Amino acid sequence: MSKATGAGAGTTLYSLFFFAFLFGPLIIMVVTAFNSSSFPRITPWECFTTDWFSVLVNNARLMGGLGTSVIIGAGVVVCAVPIGLAGAMALSELPPRLRAALYTVLITPILIPGVVLGISTIVFWGIVGRAFGEEYASTFYNGIFLTLIGQITFISAYAMLVFSARLQRFDPTLTEAALDLGATPGQCFRKILLPFLKPAIGSAAFLTLLASFENYNTTVFTILSDSTFTTALASKVRLGTDPSLSALAVIIIGLTLIGAMVHEARTRRQALLRSGKPQLSPLYANPVTRVMTHPAGIAIMLIALAGLLVYLGSRHDASACKAGILQQKRAVQEQLLEEQRARIRKLREKAGPATTDAPATNNPSPFGGAFKPGMLAPKEETAPANPSPFGGAFKPNALKPKE
Amino acid sequence: MSALSKAMHGFVGRHGMGAAVFIGVAVFFWVIFLIVLPQMAMLDYSFRNNLPVADVGGPKDVYTLTNYAYFFFSANGSINTLDIGVLGNTMLAAIFVTLIDIALCYPIAFILAHSATGVAARLMVIGLIVPFWVNEILRAFAFRVLFGATGVINGIGQSMGLWDAPIDFIRADVALYSGLTYAYILLMIFPIYNAVEALDRNQIEAARDMGASWWRVHWRVVLPIAKPGIASGATMVFMLTAGALAAPQILGGPSSLWFTQLIYQWFNQSANWQRGSAYAVLLLVVCICFVMLLMRVFKVNIGAIGR
Predict the structure, then answer these.
(1) Which SUPFAM superfamilies would you find in this protein's record (chain B) (predicted)?
(2) What CATH number does the domain located at A60-239 have?
(3) Each residue of B236-251: pLDDT tens digit?
(4) Is the pLDDT of residue A74 over 90?
(5) Which of B62, B66, B92 is nearest to B80 (CA)?
(6) Model confidence over A97-109: pLDDT tens digits?
(7) Are the C-beta atoms of A115 and B245 separated by less than 8 Å?
(8) Across residues A320-347, what is the average pLDDT?
(9) Which residues have a Cβ under 8 Å from the Cβ of A330 and sit 6 or more positions away?
(10) What residues pair up with A218 in beta bridges, in sequence order?
């Protein structure tokens, strides 16, 4: 770290601030998943509970949407990855002027607001459907079909960007050498270019799946009356919030962390193997640590840990604590009620013996007892806790000038 | 056209007929049926009346400007300040969010490219990516948990005695702006990072040796290199923020309306697809014009986006 690049306390401080902004909301959301309060919050802390997870799993609409999302996600991966590959290859082969034009066209779906894409998709396929004289129940009005089409439009562009980045590092002399040695062009494509692109295919597939699963703006229009996981989630959030959504976040973040750790282990292991002498590393030489630092080993350990946590969580019973909290709340309510009663009793005593025959204890008469016989007698002071909605404005004394 | 056929021939020679046909068909289908025709259909639709199914294609199905007129003028002929105001507010808010994102991300991208090393840099990259694997809706929800009337910030502030009554962050749009800023951070960092990474560190050191102050080094040496990255990131963040729907629906206050929400209402509550299309066209045109204008001003071309 050199001074010239501005490294130092300021840098560290800013990085810490930045990552606090990035992770703070997520951490807080995760914590709220374990609070028994029915609104997601940290203060006041009530009970540690795992009940919100079962609330989440029992939500039929979300789980139904999950199925739809998986179908759509698989379809998008199958279509968007080849289309993105085709786009990237076309870009790499075209002469510069044509390439710039095609690039502009292919990149626009990323920039166009998702709302606009969704609308244009349903409008266009609706017109196509009508042109074929189809009924409203046909494929062209099917939410899953339309969502697939709408998502492929822009998710292919993501895949294309991934492939373009990889293709830029491709050495075309490899293909030429193979052609000179007598390979057919088709063989070159299958045996040289596709293997070279293999890692990019993997990451493009992952990216497209994630993008499809996450998408809301386009999907909310194209899904019509159906619902995917994300749209079901959004309507649930809009209607009202409860910590079962935090529980969902816990699950997603957990899966993400496991994935990130396994991926990190894999890149480290590959770097180690590529260095040529993995035996020199103490972690690799020892068979136990070698298995433990193998990506599969780490995956198994993490999944086992997650399984253990789920098992422990499912056995945790918060009902006793919840009952305690309920009792406490009742006690507080009771106390408040008692105080109010005491106040009213005191008032009545002050108002004189005439009110003793009034009905019920805490009378919430809208007239504030103005029509009670004793009330017309001039009083010393106005009641502090008058339950009248008019704030005592209609009492005879209220109009008198104050002293 | 000759250039195209030449490229095609070269392509068949190198990758074979099968690959060439696959690429040709896939790109053609993508460009024509997924990108161009749907936009045309939407444009066409926006000039039509909202007719019952039986009348579609009949004598009443003529082109009209009423949908656009509705946006500009209210019923009695005066300017429709409500909808125009919503569009203007959306644009202003999107600009605001984009500026905040630039200010937040430029330092971190620079740190990532030139100050952090080894494990720290790797951890930072992972730390940047991981939050964005979480669903967009859930990220907005997290901000609702933070900023709600009984949310975490109000809870902590009140229990510490900083303020008495809960502050309505949602009505004040604090929650919305933070949520949007958060949502698209990643799209700002990586373009800037890619641009700044290309900078030779010796240039910075040379400038320092010549006695340039820290601010001056950034203004004269780093920023010009970072400019295409900033433009690319800013374009994406601006377009996505202006077109955001989930965050305004979840975090928006009762008085503030995002333009996409208007479009959503025309489609799903009023069932007037034609007018919704007209509004969508307006959003698209305004956004694209704005981005083009900025690219002209800052002398960046669209080819830089997504790199």
Answers:
(1) MetI-like
(2) 1.10.3720.10
(3) 899 889 888 888 888 8
(4) yes
(5) B66
(6) 888 888 888 888 8
(7) yes
(8) 85
(9) none
(10) none
* B282 φ, ψ (degrees, to nearest 5): -60, -45
Q: Are residues A223 and A71 in contact, defined by beta-carbon separation less than 8 angstroms?
A: no
Q: Which two tokens stand for residue A236?
A: 């649930």
Tokens representing A290 are 């070698």
Residue A106's identity, in one-letter code, is L
φ/ψ (deg, to 5) at B48? -110, 165
What is the rounded distance in angstroms from the CA atom of residue A313 to the CA atom of residue B286? 52
* Every domain of chain A and the residues it spans: 60-239, 242-316, 321-353
A-chain residues within 8 Å CB-CB of B304? none
CB < 8 Å from A in window 68-97 of B:
none
Interchain contact B138–A (C-beta under 8 A): yes
Integer Cα distance of B299 and B231 in angstroms = 9
A92 touches chain B (CB under 8 A): no
| Residue whose tokens read 């007698």 | A377
Show the tokens assigned to B155: 């809870």
What tokens appear for B90 in the block?
A: 């959306």
Helices (H), chain B: 2-28, 37-46, 66-72, 81-110, 118-129, 136-147, 152-159, 174-183, 185-197, 201-209, 214-217, 223-242, 246-251, 259-268, 273-298
Mind listing the pLDDT tens digit for each residue in A115-146?
Answer: 889 889 988 888 888 777 766 666 677 888 88
- Residue B102: CB atoms within 10 A of its CB come to 16
Q: Which of the 8 DSSP states describes residue A401?
A: P
* Whether this model's pTM surpasses 0.80: no
Question: Which residue pairs from A4-9 have beta carbons closer than 8 angstroms and sit at least 24 positions apart in sequence?
Answer: A4/B201, A4/B204, A4/B205, A4/B208, A5/B114, A5/B115, A5/B201, A5/B204, A6/B110, A6/B114, A6/B115, A6/B214, A7/B111, A7/B115
Distance between CA atoms of residues A214 and A68, nearest Å: 13
The three-state (H, E, C) secondary structure of A89-151, written as one string: HHHHHCCHHHHHHHHHHHHHHHHCCHHHHHHHHHHHHHHHHHHCCCCCCCHHHCHHHHHHHHH
Note whether B27 contacts A: Cβ–Cβ < 8 A. Answer: yes
A358/B294 Cα distance (integer angstroms): 77
Place of tokens 């704005």: B290
Looking at B199-258, list the stretches that DSSP marks H as alpha helix, in order from N- to C-terminal side. Answer: 201-209, 214-217, 223-242, 246-251
Asked if A43 lies within 8 A of B204 by C-beta distance, the reply is no
Q: Answer whether B299 touches A (CB < 8 Å).
A: no
Please list the residues that pair with A15 across neighbouring strands: none
Chain B positions touching A93 (Cβ under 8 A) are 7, 10-11, 14
Q: Which residue has the higher pLDDT, B171 or A362?
A: B171
SS3 A66: helix
Of A112, A153, A119, which Cα lies nearest the Cα of B287? A112
Q: In terms of C-beta density within 10 A (0-12 exposed, 13-18 middle, 19 or more buried), how is residue A164 classed? A: buried
Taken in order of first residue, the domains within chain B and their CATH numbers are: 75-304 (1.10.3720.10)
> To 5 degrees, how large is the angle CA A260–CA A264–CA A266?
120
For residue A49 the two structure tokens come to 């509970």
